[in-house]
Amino acid sequence: MRTIKKALFFLALGSLSLILAACYGPPIDVRATWLGRRIVRLLDGSNRPIAGLVVESVDQARHLGQTDANGEILLDTELNMPVDGTFLALDVDGPANGGDFADLSLVIQPGDDDEINAYPTAKNAN
Amino acid sequence: MTAQPVGRFIYRLYRRLERLRPELHYLFAEITRRCNLSCRHCGSDCSAASQGRELSTDSWLKIIDYFKARFQPPPAVVITGGEPLLSPGLETIAAHLGENGFTWGLVSNGFIYDPARWQALLDRRLASATISLDGDAAGHNGLRRHPKAYDHALKTLGFLAKAGLSQLDVVSCVYPGNLDTLDNLAETLHGLGVPAWRLFRIFPIGRAARDPALLLDAAGSWRLVDWIRDRRPRWLERGLDLQLCCEGYLPFAIDRQVRAQPFFCRAGINIASILCNGDITGCSNNHRDFAQGNILRDDFLTVWRQRFQDFRRRPWLRGSDCQGNARQRRCPHWDDCQGSSIHLWTKSQARPAFCYLDDQPGRA
After folding, report:
1. For the segment B36-80, what is each residue's pLDDT rounded down to a tens digit?
2. Which of the four CATH numbers 2.60.40, 3.40.50, 2.40.128, 2.40.10 does domain A30-118 have?
3. Residues of chain A whose C-beta is under 8 A from some C-beta in B?
4. What number of other Cβ atoms are within 10 A of residue B2's Cβ?
5. B15, B106, B117, B268: which could form a disulfide with B282 (CB 3.0–4.6 Å)?
6. How high is the ipTM of this complex?
């Protein structure tokens, strides 16, 4: 039944986006659901935070920002993207910010913790 | 056949299915009736002092747990008031919503300009906010009866527009005193970075019912519709989605020019409310005649499934024509209008408080 309703809605209006804003209530996309919010923390081998790493979503082909002084970056569905999938951490500043690190591919599963520690490998490490 | 009649016909089928198989998408949670303003037009007669017993914060947390357990997916929750920021339990309720995966939003008059508090709500996954702004400083402050109301609302809007909230909009109550200032308000909102704007007529409930100077007559209401038809395309291009509010049936072809989604009163079909005294109803501004139960004594799911028939089956609205006379003819719009918006009705009246078509038949 839900599928039929969606199909009719699409045929009538050319859109699948059902945004309700009843009376004085705010508009909400009632078909959207929160997928969560995660903090990814990037640390070196001594558990020290790595600032300045660029993080990208591989699945979404999107640049998401850089880790802060705590080595953290927030992945948030407010950015209209899932917070699981494959992400890439890139060291773009070379030896600055604690050393030169190899690219790290990070796969986050739906059931993973809300805070995730990950450990890029230093390029000069044996 | 052209596209418009086909679209109207399919949309009519869609609405019929929604009424036959109601699904709760959107739940108003009126967490308080206390308010820091005393607006001339307030439909709830809100004031600084609460006028009765209100559900406790613990009660709201239990209600949230209930909806998470009983509704899959859970409805989007809209916190409303009164002024919700006056509730000491707001952050606790917000955190519980966010932690339990609800999509939730907030309605505010924007008078409390407190970035730290708003940020705390954003951190609790506030998805959507609606702020009231009713014109320029004179128009807004006059309606809100406070000399700083406009400044505060503007600051709050500026903060939220920059905060990256996924859905932010402004609602404006249009009345004869601000109908000619809408172009200026559009510029102001665009300048603030507000992406969406809804325009309401003030409808005659609460204090507004006792202040006829606030009510647009039929000609004024059509001036508003015509203004939106004219301005909406160009403002959409500039990034401001201005539209007519959900109130009041309009013919499909006009509707498509003034609203993102055509008229469909979803109260009791996709929308329910729990008021601060526990009453269960359709939209929070529906007349108290329409209360279907009370959360303190009734099981919501049972109420949702077994009651709400006045909202879903509306032949009772056809007992008279929209002028209140015994029905001599069948209104040609009935199949689409279905009595228009429930909040325009009480059980005892014979016609809606307003009808775009019946109040100015020449525009039908």
Report:
1. 888 888 876 666 665 678 999 999 999 999 998 888 788 999 999
2. 2.60.40
3. 1-2, 4-5, 8-9, 11-13, 18-30, 32-34, 36-37, 78, 80
4. 7
5. B268
6. 0.76
